[in-house]
Each structure stands twice: as C-alpha cells, then as structure tokens.
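Hello forum,

I keep getting stuck at the same step: I have a sequence, I want structure tokens, and every attempt I make locally crashes halfway through. Rather than fight my setup again tonight, could one of you with a working pipeline run this one for me? It's a single chain of 461 residues.
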Amino acid sequence: MHYSLHNFSWKAVLTLFVAAGIFSGCSQQQEQQKLTDTTAPLHALQPDYPVQYEPASEEQIIETLTRVRDYLAETTPMVLLEEGTENEVTDIAGYSGDTEFEAGDFRLVSYEWGVTYAGMQLAGEVTGDESFTNYSTERLNFLADVVEAHRKKLEENPTLETPVESLIHPGALDDAGAMSAAMIKAVRSGYNDEEKLDWLINNLVGYIHNDQFRFEDGTLARNRPQDNTLWLDDLFMSVPALAQMGEHTGEQKYFDDAVKQVKQFAERMFDEEKGIYFHGWVKAMEDKPRFHWGRANGWALMAKVELLEVLPEDHPGYDDVLEQLRAHIKGLAKYQSGEGRWHQLLDKTDSYLETSATAIYAYSVARAINRGWVDEKSYGPMVLLAWNSVSNQVNERGQVEGTCVGTGMAFDPAFYYHRPINVYAAHGYGPVILAGAEVLELTRTHNVGINDSGLQVYGKE
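Reply #2:
Ran it on my machine without issues. Output:
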C-alpha cells in the first residue's frame, strides 16, 4: 500500500521514540545506580580543572625546562657579522668595521636576556645538567669578547656601529641592571672568569650607582613619560645588581643603596589596602593613577627576593625588606585566578591572564618558601598551581605563550588591557626557567601532594 506524506503520522513515530527512550532509560537506571550523596563519595569526583592540578613531577618540570632551553639554544646564535652582510667576523679583536649580531628570535643583550642568563645558571645548578649553565657561560664570554674588542675602537671612532653599545655606554637602568646581576652571579659561582667580566661588571653597576637620574632623596627615577617619574620595574633593574655587587665586593654602600630603593619605592607606590604596587608614580600628579600591572609587580617582588638572598641578616634594613616581601606575597595571593595565572591588571578580572608575571611570582614565592621567609603551607599550593599553569603555556616547540610584550607606562586602563601578547616577547623566557628550577627545588625538599582532594605542601623532608 502506498502512503502519502500527508497520511504519515509523525506524532505516532515521536510517541514510539519517546516510549523507547523511557524503557531504555529505565533499563540503564537499573544497571547503573544514580550518583547521590548516599550512593557515592561525591567529594571524590574529579573536577574539570583547566590545567593539571596535582603537583608536577620532577620529570615533567625538567622536560619543560629542557624544551625551552633547546628552543633558545637553537634560536639565539652567537655569531658576529660584518654589518649588512652574512660574513662572519672570526677575528673579533682584529676587525675594525661596523658589526652586528646574526639575527635570532631574541637579542643577546637586553634586560630580558639578563634574566634568562641567570635562569639558565639556576637551572643548571638544580638539575645538574651543564647544558643549561653552558648556555649562559658561553654567551656571556662571547659578549665580553665583543665588548673588549670594541670599547677602545669606539673611543677612536664614536660612530662605529656595534651591537654591544648599551654595555659599553649604558644609558638606562634597563641596559645595566639584569645583565650585570647575571654576570656577577656567574663569576661568584665560578662559571665565568672574573677577569673577563670585571670591566663590564664595574661599568654597568657604576652606571646604576653613580649616573642614573635620581630624586633628591636618592630614589632612582626617570624623566619619561612625565618628568620625575618612578617606574616600579626599576626596582628589578637596579636592586639585584646593587645587592650582588655588595656581596661581590663586600662594600656596604651597595647594600645600603639597594635597601633604600626598596624602602623609598614602597613608601610611594605600595597600595597598603590591596597589598600590591602601582606601576607608576609621578611627582607632579596631585591624584596618582593606580594601575596595578602584573609584570611590574613581579619585578618588584623578585627584586626583594634577590636582595634578601645576599643581604646580611644584621643589616639594619633586613627586617624591613623581609616584612615588605611578606606583605607583597600576601597581597598577591588574593588575586590568583582559578586557572592559576594572574591577570594583566591584577585587580581587574576582565583583563587577560598573563604568563610572565605568573612565572615571576612562582619563582619568587618558591624561593621565599625554600629560604624559610614565608610559610610553605600557606603559599606552597599557590606556587604549584602557578607553575602548572605556566608550564601549560609552553608549547611543543618550547615557546612561551601568553606573555605581554614590552610595556611603557600610561595612565588609562585601555593601554594595559590591550597590550598585545606574543611568543617573541622575551620577558617570558627567563622567568619560566627560573620558576621551573625553583619549583623543582621546592618539590624535592618539601612534601607535596594531594590530601582530601586539595593541593598541600608540608615541611621540608
């Protein structure tokens, strides 16, 4: 019999499907009991975390660090070229023409790479893998050779083009601080020869201590973007180098200068209510804008950690720096996201999650725990979660994703909200290496794990 579509009963078919579903559902319910408070331990259900929640294993951390190192080793060549050509300068001391470094993904001379050199040194110490240490040692030696060959030639020919101009004639804290701190660490640890780096260290730290613009009270400042401006970033661009120089030379004046910077920046820029810092402070502004930028807070946090690492405990400023570190960590803890990273503007949850700041916090707080400056029970889980989130941003090639590009200073929210992120933002690499190394040390020396479904960190083993 032929049925037309008009005679076909869709309602009847739907009724049959519904009935079949009911019988099927009944059958499944009979086979599988409902999960309720009385039939299952609901507290043990696995949440849908956006990143790994349990502590990263030693193997996982080392694998991430190795991936980053291999990528950087491949993409930051140590080659000096005749400018504008592909001709390598093999006789660096004997060549008197204009030069440039072979282009890689990143520069060999920058404050970001000063952080990377220090990170590689730490990763080598913690993992025992000399290839990390060699990355820093070889490049610092290479830079010293290029500087030695060019600095006297520049006196004879000031127009000579050289890729190490900022090391010979630093003109900003960015040129001097992180690079010299890494060099002093390398010398103190025996990785690099002191004689080879001695002129560079004295030249760069001399600029910080003697030549950088300051307020009348000695606070390191800039005249951009407004006259008499404090940049929170400058705590890191100065304090670790001054602290390392104090340890290196035994001269109290460097420790005193470093402690003064921490104290006088905090008096002007630490938001007592929130427990975090403003990015900028301008003397002439009656109403000071309050933008709590994530990475600048990271630089300030790391500066205090690096200072306490070498500051004698009997120094009159030691307790004040330690108190300021603890207050800052306590403040930052309030703003960590459920994903593990912090926001570009710390107190603005609609700003994007940012990797470099999170990595700096992970390193700094892990080191504070490892040195006994803050409680591992309170802040250890925060660090482990932060590292899991950071490592999730390292792609298969070893590139660090989610890092804000270089950032000046502004006094409106749009500037910070819309700064681009890029895998070639050099600011992410050193902090990731430092974070991985220090978190690895934390997991080796403390009991870490899951207890009652939550991340826990207990005392040292």
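The CA atoms of residues 447 and 458 lie 5 Å apart. If your local run keeps crashing, start a new thread with the error log.
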